[in-house]
Amino acid sequence: MSIKKAILPVAGLGTRFLPASKSIPKEMVTVVDRPAIEYVVKEAVAAGIEQIILVTHSSKASIENYFDRNFELETTLENKKKIDLLKEITEILPPHVSVISVRQPQALGLGHAVLCAKAVVGNDDFAVLLPDVLVKDPSETNDLSLMIQRFNETQASQIMVEAVPDNLVDQYGIVDVASTPAEGHSIQMQGIVEKPAVGTAPSNLSVVGRYILPAKIMQLLEQTPKGAGNEIQLTDAIAMLQETDTVEAYRMKGQTFDCGSKLGYLKAVLHYGVDHPKLGDAFKDLIKELKL
Ligand code: G1P
């Protein structure tokens, strides 16, 4: 069976995005006219995902509310004949996609967050999408769907990577590969390390935050000791998996925006703004008016 489930860890407190994230989840910060998390969910849905599993926190109910119906609002819009808006809010997700949430009771790291979804994932292989990073890929077949295709053909786990400047390797998971694959292609990984010190990294290919993983990684996560930052790292469980199974690094063709950082967020607003079907042209005029 193809990959139908995706885990989105959204329990993080978003300290990099304060003060905005003091009272709204960082995932709900608006990129143009919708919350950042919608782009990530739509990326998953475009790749064939049918069940979104949010690993969340008590302070983040607005994320679940966003993907739920809001009858009061719907009725008001209907009575006011605002049919376009009604369509917008009721068609965020296609009917065959469901959203489930589980709680991460303690902030013990990304690996622990993924493990919190174990009971929902069961025996199914699954995708993981980290919601801070937006992946913009205008092609019909997005990067995530190519990773799923490759997984279906080879059963090899897929880790999405992109090249980063050498002085930034200590902010990411970094993969060890014999050579850099072409964009849109995968290569077998020899290792993976979380946030290596500058000058010690095995390559400059960084883990973007999109993974296709086998169900059995949950057993490995249960045995993963605390690693970098004193947290249970998904990277460490993948390194264990790679000792017995083929794991591949998939080099993305799209573009990333790290909405966990303020500048990355502003860049996302610019790019998604100019490409917006309704607002794009007027937004470009606004940018010209700045006469930078
Ligand atoms: C996580 C992962 C890291 C990855 C990064 C991508 O780190 O642990 O391997 O490169 O996301 O954004 P975090 O940014 O949560 O510290």
TrEMBL record:
SUPFAM superfamilies tied to this protein: Nucleotide-diphospho-sugar transferases (SSF53448)
Top enzyme class? transferase
Q: Which CDD domains match?
A: UGPase_prokaryotic
Q: For this protein, what is the EC number?
A: 2.7.7.9
InterPro entries the record matches: GalU_uridylyltTrfase_bac/arc (IPR005771), NTP_transferase_dom (IPR005835), Nucleotide-diphossugar_trans (IPR029044)
Q: Which GO terms describe its molecular function?
A: UTP:glucose-1-phosphate uridylyltransferase activity
- Which keywords does this Swiss-Prot/TrEMBL entry list? Nucleotidyltransferase, Transferase
Task: Indicate the segments forming the Nucleotidyl transferase domain, all copies.
Answer: 5-269
Q: Which Gene3D superfamilies match?
A: Spore Coat Polysaccharide Biosynthesis Protein SpsA, Chain A
User: Entry's Pfam families?
Assistant: NTP_transferase
Its recorded reaction(s) are: alpha-D-glucose 1-phosphate + UTP + H(+) = UDP-alpha-D-glucose + diphosphate
Described function: May play a role in stationary phase survival.
* Family statement: Belongs to the UDPGP type 2 family.
**Designated name of the protein:** UTP--glucose-1-phosphate uridylyltransferase
